[in-house]
Write a structure and sequence with these properties.
By secondary structure, the chain is mostly helical. It has helices at 3-29, 43-75.
């Protein structure tokens, strides 16, 4: 397997994980995965922290796919890389 093929495979795998993380975000945002009963211990603050971390996770996955594309681009002498 070539360097480009390996990076492309990893990018596709990461994009699959990112899709699942985005699904988790939507389900959490809509309350479907936040089934804890309300308490006096700031449940909304906890939910906000959960959602913020899910969003950061998604953004880091997007960054990882971009960085792998940039690695291919650098190997090819700076040519732009587009998904196959």
């Amino acid at each position: 397997m070539s360097f480009e093929d390996w990076c492309s495979m990893l990018r596709n795998d990461i994009k699959g994980v990112a899709k699942e993380v985005k699904s988790l975000y939507v389900k959490t945002q809509n309350g479907g995965l936040w089934a804890e009963p309300a308490t006096d211990v700031e449940p909304d603050g906890l939910k906000t922290e959960m959602i913020a971390n899910i969003i950061l996770c998604y953004r880091h996955l997007e960054d990882a796919t971009m960085r792998l594309g940039k690695a291919i681009q650098a190997k090819d002498g700076g040519k732009s890389f587009y998904d196959k």
